[in-house]
Amino acid sequence: VQYNSFKPFQMAWMIHLAAFILFGLFFLFHKPRLFQAGLVVFAAGIGVSGYGFLLRCLIAGRPPVSNMYESLIWVVFGMTVFALIFESIFKTRQFAAAGSALAVIGFVLADNMPAMMDSAIQPLQPVLRSNFWLTIHVLTITLSYAAFLLSFGFGHLCLWTLWSNPGDREKLKEQTKLLYRVVQVGVVLLAAGTILGGVWANYSWGRFWGWDPKETWALIALLGYIAILHGRLAGWLKEKGFILGVLAAFLGVLMAWYGVNFILGAGLHSY
Q: Half-sphere exposure of residue 18, counting CA atoms within 13 Å on the CB side?
């Protein structure tokens, strides 16, 4: 009753919208108090969505990542947490702004697409009925998507700098370095989640790897980001190439996350 009357994820996008407006006013008028107020509101949005997840966990008795609706709100929530962490560490005043914008888009999509993203709490598919593996594999994979989503939003800020201030090489270099860090977090989590998924597949289906579409696209997404990181590290990709590569690589995540279920509709993971 509390979950359905409180509507935490609907409230979350409204709070994040208020935070985004405050961040926008800060960039317009350069008043530090506006950013501080926006950061408080942004943290409140994280708190409300976190409370929503706690309620869903208590109701369902499992991690809330069993369908597209739950994975979307979890990825958006994880992205906002990563944004707050990176903002606290690097104090760029850009991670929180990107995070609030993406949070509004993500929570609005989840809240307004009931035909595709059913918010009802359904029984688990038989293959998912292992809270241990569901927690460590699915949460790890989706948290990697959260990091990549943040890199997608922050990459657009880098692209804006590249377009509006092409001569400000110092700022672009610093932004690219931070973007590199976010992608690194996503790669570590996606690699760990893919390996853990293989262990779970061996436990459930009797084989570690079977070139299932979900497995294959997770590997493609991972290899794409690894190639971009190595290209940057080796000096083959400069700032512009790296930024464009990160934005393009997110298409692999979208295919692994959304495309396998709703476009291909095939394989052992297409439930």
A: 14
